[in-house]
Amino acid sequence: MTSIPLRPPRRLVDLTLDGEPVRAPEGSTLLDACRAAGKDIPTLCQGDTLTPKNACRVCVVEVEGARTLAPACSRRVEQGMEVRTDTERARHSRKVVLELLASSTDMSTTPRAAEWIEEYGAEPDRFGADAARVDEEPKVDNDLYVRDYDKCILCYKCVDACGEQWQNTFAIAVAGRGFDARISTEHDAPLTDSACVYCGNCIEVCPTGALSFKTEFDMRTAGTWDEAAQTETTTVCAYCGVGCNLTLHVQDNEIVKVTSPHDNPVTHGNLCIKGRFGYQHVQNHAQNRD
């Protein structure tokens, strides 16, 4: 039996959140401290399996003595820090960011986006009908997943998951500058002609639905996608002996997509093409039994 090595305890630091004293482990972020204290800080680009990118800036908070607002997802806690999460300045910044994002991208499939827009009184329509948008048709060039860049907020999470932080495939990167910046394969080639290995780890970290399972995309198009009617069952992948955990999302007795628990020590939310997309045999066996 393999023993788990003991690690030295993390020192706790004292700070103040909205006037309340709290303690947080040294090295943790302000967002970690806020969540531990039960404070709901909005964030889009933050991922629990990735290094913070500070891209969306929705999670900004006010730190006493700092000239600018600080992104809570990456700013580390410090001894004696005084943090205010719900000041007029922070709320106004979140409002403007949400307005800019929602005016230029389709956030209809972004979890909690509509809730935050209402909470902060954001008015994306105030920029008018001529606000610049991507207006690009979804890219459907394979049978596994769809790229809908009309929903992309350029958080770079997919690039990180495909690159050095997890998969090391480097099939996608940021191309262009300014408003022309976009996520692209090399030379903008079809996904089928790129280095993509179809692990789907980019889908796992996408916060807006810009990347989605082909099954989900088709069901949303047909109006049959219903997350409220879906059940989730976590099991072990049967393709090899690594022991990856799979969470099967089932609707109407059919698997509609597969994810992986982010807290699993084997996968950390990542899978290979077989684990992510190779579930059709389960349904074929079920149909044969019927």
Automatic annotation (TrEMBL):
Ranges where the 2Fe-2S ferredoxin-type domain occurs: 11-89
Residues in coiled coil: none
Domain 4Fe-4S ferredoxin-type: 143-162, 188-216
Superkingdom assignment: Bacteria
Domain 4Fe-4S Mo/W bis-MGD-type: 230-286
UniProt-listed InterPro entries: 2Fe-2S_ferredoxin-like_sf, 2Fe-2S_ferredoxin-type, 4Fe4S_Fe-S-bd, 4Fe4S_Fe_S_CS, Mopterin_OxRdtase_4Fe-4S_dom, MopterinOxRdtase_cofactor_BS, PSI_iron-sulfur_center
Keywords, ordered alphabetically: 4Fe-4S, Iron, Iron-sulfur, Metal-binding
Transmembrane parts of this sequence: none
Protein name, as recorded: (2Fe-2S)-binding protein
Organism: Streptomyces endocoffeicus
